[in-house]
Amino acid sequence: MEKNRRENSLPCETIGVAGAGRGVGVTHFCVMAANYLTAVAGDETAVLEWNGSGDFGRMELACTGGVQGRRRFQVLGTDYYKGAGAGELALCLDRYRRILIDFGELRDGVRDEFARCGKRVLIGSFSEWQWETFWGWIERGRAAEKGWILAAAFGSGETRREVVRKLKIPVLEIPLSADAFTVTPGTLEFFQTFFMRR
User: CA neighbours within 13 Å on the CB side: how many for 57?
Assistant: First the structure.
C-alpha cells in the first residue's frame, strides 16, 4: 500500500549523503540518521539508494527475510527505496518529512543531484589509506564554502584535528555504532546536534 500524501505542513527536507571514496560509511550513516529521524524525531522518513551498490537489496533480505519485487521496503518504520533515482525522489517529496539520499561515492554523474539537496553531507575517512582522497575533495571544492557538511567516522583523530586546524573547516566526528539500526546515547546526541544545523 502506498503512503498517503503528507498532511504535515512542514516542508520536506532532502539530505544528500556522499562519500569522498568507497567504503567510508555512507549507507551506515544514512541508516543511523533514518532511525534517529523515525524513532526519536517522529518524522516520516525515506532513504533512497541512488547508487549501483545493491546494498539495499541485501539489507531487505537480511532485515525482512525476503526480497519483494517492489522497490520500496520498510525496516523499523523507515521506508527504503532500492535503485532509486529522480522518479522515486519526485514521488517521495510530498509523502515524507525527511528524505535521505545515499549517493555512494561522490562522482561527476551524481554531483549535480547532490548539490540540489537541502543538506549535503560529504563523508570521508582519516584512515591512512583513505584520508588523501578526502583531503582532495576538500581542497578541490573548498566544500565548506558550498555549504557541505564534512564528516568522518574512521581514522586518526590526530589527522582530523590537523585538517581542521589547517583549513579552519569543521569535520564532524560520526560516533561509532556497531548496529546502524540502534539509537545509542552517542548517536542520539550526535543527530540532535546534526539536525539543528542549518
Answer: 10
Give the Cβ contact number of residue 52 at 10 Å.
8
Closest CA to 134 of 26, 51, 47, 14: 26
Rounded CA separation 59/186 (Å): 23
The residue ranges of DSSP E strands in the chain, in sequence order, are: 13-19, 45-49, 72-75, 78-81, 98-105, 119-126, 148-155, 171-173
pTM of the model: 0.87
Comparing 13-27, 101-115, 123-137, the range with the smallest average pLDDT is 123-137
Interatomic CA distance for residues 192 and 20, integer angstroms: 24
What are the pLDDT digits (tens) for 14-65?
Answer: 999 999 888 889 999 999 999 999 999 999 999 999 998 999 999 999 999 8
